[in-house]
Amino acid sequence: MLGSVPMPTLMNFSKHKSTNIGEPLVDPTPFRRLLGRLIYLTHTRLDITFVVHHLNQFIVASTTLHHQASMRILHYLKHHPGQGIFFDSTSSLQLKAFCDSDWAGCPITRRSVTGYIIYIANSPIY
């Protein structure tokens, strides 16, 4: 992958990912191993989280299209190497969590809306 062309975007959203598009992979083990490593990387690279978990839905019935999409993530990571969580050397590694909820806040469904964010050393992680 050292000589690969960097990609500025993570996913081609014009192509719909499905289990019946593309040929099934002969050996899905490398695809599954790559997705496992990308899931681990989502802890520090929050920008790839949606695409990695979207591809993880097709881990059982993976096709060549899914493998190409996972390779596109690697091309994207090559294009944006400096992004991720920054841990400042002067900040303490303190875990902070904030939560906010709004009881029946949605005017249409009357469901509650909840949000949260977790910080480690002043950097959001989740």
Plain-language structure description:
The chain is α+β, with helices and mostly antiparallel strands. The protein has 2 domains: 1-84, no CATH class; 95-124, no CATH class. It is 29% helix and 14% strand. The chain has 3 helices and 3 strands, in the order H-H-H-E-E-E. A 3-stranded antiparallel beta sheet has the order 1-2-3, with no helix packed on it. Helix 1 (29-41) packs antiparallel against helix 2 (49-56). The radius of gyration is 18 Å and the shape is globular.
Keywords:
126 residues; alpha+beta; 14% strand
- Overall mean pLDDT score? 81
Helical content stands at 25-40%
* Tally of helical runs: 3
Strand order of the largest sheet: 1-2-3
- Roughly how many Å apart are the termini? 29 Å
Question: How many distinct beta strands?
Answer: 3
Hey, roughly how much beta strand do the residues contain?
A: 5-15%
Bulk shape: globular
Question: Structural class, please?
Answer: alpha+beta
Task: Sketch the topology as an H/E string, one letter per element.
Answer: HHHEEE
**What is the C-alpha radius of gyration, as a whole number of Å?**
18 Å
Largest sheet: 3 strands, antiparallel
Whole-number count of domains: 2
Unreliable segments (pLDDT under 50, ≥5 consecutive)? none
SSE arrangement:
Layout: H1 29-41, H2 49-56, H3 64-79, E1 95-102, E2 113-120, E3 123-124
Helix pairs in contact: 1-2
What's a quick, concise take on this entry?
By secondary structure, this protein is α+β, with helices and mostly antiparallel strands. The chain contains three helices and three strands, in the order αααβββ.
